[in-house]
Amino acid sequence: MSELKSSLPTTDGNHFVDYSKVIKELVCHENSLPSVSETPQFDHKLYYSSLKKYQLLEGKPEGWGSILMYGEVLTSTNSIVEKNPKLLEQLPTGFTVAATTQVAARGRGTNVFIAPPGCLIFSTIINHPGHLSMSHPIVFFQYLAAIATVEAIQSYDEGYEAMPVKLKWPNDIYALDPTSPKNKPTYTKIGGILSQCAYFNGNYQTVLGVGVNTTNRKPTISLADLLPRASHLCVSRHC
User: What predicted TM-score, i.e. pTM, was given to this entire model?
Assistant: First the structure.
């Protein structure tokens, strides 16, 4: 928490920080990937090699995740694009924003919270033609994303199919609390989907945010807490 605190803007003690007024600087890497020293909390080489592997497995991978914006500490991966309409209107489908920490993560309504290191945090852009809004309603995006998230967890690797994770319709991810008694199991929220939409130049521009507790420590429940019940595997393939 001390590292997180030092990264936050200071206040006078009487007012909250207006993060929308904090200037964000974008550093573009067009010819080479950022080094590990530049982004110590995110390995771009591993990310892109893994992305390429999965793209080869899919029949139509499109460009999902190929263009990535990463920030070690962001307000919110949704807000960073949704609150910047001039940027948003230029972004292609599949453009993805990821972060290690969110200091103003978005929830339902006006809920705002801190998402610490150890969470899987990202948002992706979907540009949907307006003339398809009746036959292909954009409301289904968040439903499909929620289903895909649960399926991704349970198909991550051998043994993960036993991971006690389920979807609380329509967009919350719940997991079995490993501390609950076997005769009275309880489930707790470990993630969710946030969908926000704007309309520009004939397209519905959806910012689809996904957040899942993966390895972050207590008091929250994360996927790492469930592994003993699922298998002896670990969340990271390289541990």
Answer: 0.82
